[in-house]
Design goal:
By secondary structure, the chain is mainly alpha-helical. Helix content is about 75%, strand content about 5%.
Length: about 170
């Protein structure tokens, strides 16, 4: 008896709170695909990334070349010379790893560049979504692209095109 009364009270509570909320969806991938500045920023990041990757690969190739030369010359080198060559190889490998970390690490240059290029676009989208949500009384706006647990959502509540219109990219 107690369990059924508690269950009934919980159902009433949930139905009261759920009925008062309005939800909307956006598809961030769709929105970003329709913003030319995002595409330009992405292209710029790709070019920078390729250039930096080639620099890292060049250093790694130098280290490999040094190692191959060392292997072919090792028989003719004294212990002192071997140690010097080994240290040179290790230093070159460390330099390549350090450069890779500097460019591509969690707080690396690519991350910083991505932040500087993407943050203004994301802020603009966020502000447009916030304005629409405030104006239409949405309690929550969910990104369909990143919400993996959304199995189905009615297209009626998708405001992606409205966000694009607010940003000046109407179709």
């Amino acid at each position: 008896m107690k369990k059924s009364m508690i269950l009934a009270a919980l159902c009433c509570l949930f139905s009261l709170t759920a009925g008062a909320q309005k939800f909307a969806l956006i598809d961030m991938e769709y929105i970003l695909k329709n913003i030319p500045a995002y595409e330009r920023a992405n292209e710029q990041l790709n070019q920078i990334s390729k250039r930096w990757q080639s620099e890292v690969e060049a250093l790694s190739l130098e280290a490999q070349t040094l190692y191959k030369n060392y292997q072919s010359e090792a028989v003719f080198l004294s212990e002192e010379q071997k140690t010097a060559k080994e240290n040179e190889i290790v230093a070159k490998e460390k330099e390549a790893q350090e450069l890779k970390r500097t460019y591509f690490g969690p707080e690396g240059e690519l991350y910083k560049k991505r932040e500087s290029l993407m943050a203004p676009i994301q802020d603009e989208i966020y502000n447009a979504v916030k304005e629409i949500a405030d104006a239409k009384g949405y309690s929550m706006v969910i990104d369909r692209a990143s919400a993996t647990s959304v199995i189905y959502a009615s297209p009626k509540i998708d405001i992606s095109n409205e966000v694009l219109s607010k940003l000046g990219y109407a179709e």
